[in-house]
Amino acid sequence: MPVLFVPAANAVQLPNISCRQYEENINHLYRIIPKQLTPEQKCAVIPDKCGQSWLLFNPDGMEIYYYKSRCYMELAIKTGNRKMCNQVKQRRSIFLDGSYFSLKSCLSEIQRSKN
Q1: What domain range includes position 30?
Q2: pLDDT, tens digit, for every residue of 20-75?
Q3: How is 57-84 classified by DSSP, letter by letter?
């Protein structure tokens, strides 16, 4: 007999946010992301392919990145949760360096913060 998944009564419905909505509200995310979400849920609602680019004056490795990857990496470092680093995806470009926001860098930053 198959087991059916039944959401809990207090389960929070995650909003579906477009990249355009996210970028238009980047300084006012409270308008589009419900405040009752956990920090991890807040990262999860960020569109996958939405991000920053051409940040030429940023430090090495931070010239291009995905918003979702930055969110998960900051949360992973803050909490020391190495599993969250699996959600950090490096954004690649021929001309720009996005290597800071990567699985390898995330794990390295957590290790460094413990020392």
Answers
A1: 19-114
A2: 888 888 888 878 888 888 999 999 999 988 988 877 777 788 788 899 999 999 99
A3: TSPTT-SSEEHHHHHHHHHHHHHT-GGG
